Amino acid sequence: MKKSFFLVVIVTVFFQLSAYIKETILMPMSDGIHLETDIYFPDDYVGKEYPVVLIRSPYDRDEKEDAGTNFTANNVVFVTQSFRGTFGSEGVHAVFHSEGWGAIKDGYDTLQWITEQSWCNGKIATIGGSAEGLAQYFMAGLDEKPGLVYQIISQASGNLHNGIFFPEGMFREHAITEWLKGQDASFFIDDLLEGDRYSATNSLWDDANIFLRKENLNTPVSHLAGWFDMFAKYQIDTFRLYQESGAEDQHLIIGPWDHDKFMTTHTGELIFPEASLKYYEGEYDPVYGMLFHFFFPSLASKPQWSPVSYYTIGDLSIPDAPGNEWKYSEEFPPQDASSQILSATENLILKAGKCGKGYFTLTFDYANPLPTLCGNNLTDSPGPCDVSQYRERKDIISFSTASFDKPTEITGAIDFTVSFNSTMKDFDIVVIITDIYPDGKEYLMLEGGKKMRFRDGLSDEKLLSPGEQTIVTFSVGYLSINLNKGHKLGVHVSPTYFPKYRIPSNVEDYWNNEKIKGEVVFDLSETFLTIDTIGVWGGEECVEEEPDDDFDDEISDDDDVELHDNSDLDATLSTKSDGCSLLLL
Prior knowledge:
Number of strands: 24
Radius of gyration: 27 Å
Structural class: alpha/beta
Shape: globular
Largest sheet: 12 strands, mixed
Helix content: 10-25%
Distance between the termini: 39 Å
């Protein structure tokens, strides 16, 4: 993943600043490969034992020097090591398959080697973000983790297949190809083209999926995520897995940050208040307070803070608007969140409740896919931007609520259920969630989707039968936003989203790139969004149609009415009651 400038914040109240000694070594791995490693020592380390902070990384180790000087100033040895095949390390880049419990166990070998050194007191913590965070999650799945007492993991996922390469079966083309190119590891794309390696059923992914190692997740972790990060949904899912495993001292922090500008006030086209940097407060940061507690329990007590700290996005054009604040809970989604269905008729106005009806026929051309303007991306314009231009296209469905009468908080999970029939054997459904301001600007807040050949799960691949009615429910992701009075919730649904995701195939060959045209007919009576809300719903609600009392008044129990068999009439009416069909050409 893109290089993450993960700034190390150190508690400085315990020790005086001092000089350091740096050594560069080739650390031996169990298969005979040596990994180039920098070790920063306090200048008087000989004959003493210290706790160790470790970063394993595919990026330039020289950029870690400031972290090294800060840690050694606090009587901590700092170790930064390059992945195999990068920056002086021997071997071939393994694209994270040497980080976990597979045939090659570089993470384990490194922990073991450090604990055997005379200068290590047996306590190791790991830190880092993005690719460095992935290495930590896969280390956490090991059967044994010598010396590991704590991890600080930002911008990452515990599942290499679903969380990174093929989210919900869709190939994350732009991010993956660009990152592999930057790593001189484009050969891995060629490996993916073989057989069914795009599928979760291929054993290629088993040694980089901690969802298969739930029983091993017992290390305290601070999980740092951003609402606009490419890993947001999958890191929250990973945190929830840790909670389900019973692991203690798990903390999730979710801020309004993207992958490129993590822990800053700027993201995409939006600027958030300074309060959005709550977990960037030097010695008061509980993330690093926890680190020093595990290293020096007699000097640093364990911080008392909620398992989940999340930032609720608010209107950025009005000071003191609802939202733009940190909130706390025991889990995510919070316990006080309740599910709300939003549905629409042919006018595509979303209302609370299940009152959808009608049909929407969508035609599209793979040669002219919906463009990725911004969003939960790695390098392709990460963060929110105004996507109101999407409403001018004729190859997507664009829903919205009416303007909210009251501020409405959406906090938790967002799922999408869709009923359709299609001429296609496979396509993607991408859902884009937006905040529509009163001036018409429409900022992307979240996007997620599903490849239809994996509609029943990533281990159950089957093509669609053209013309057959299909119902699919999938997770779009998670969000916390307070939509102010006058705002609208926007939803766009598209069968393509390029270049973020590869153009879908319409045949069994997953990698087929034929640019064809297709059609999907959506049944709006069974197509709806399910969102988690907190507090009052300030938008429109479905209203049940009142029965026609006039007809009842015309016929009383005393009237002599001759009853007839109306089965033919009923059959005729049933063919006329399917609602209005909108055809976009």
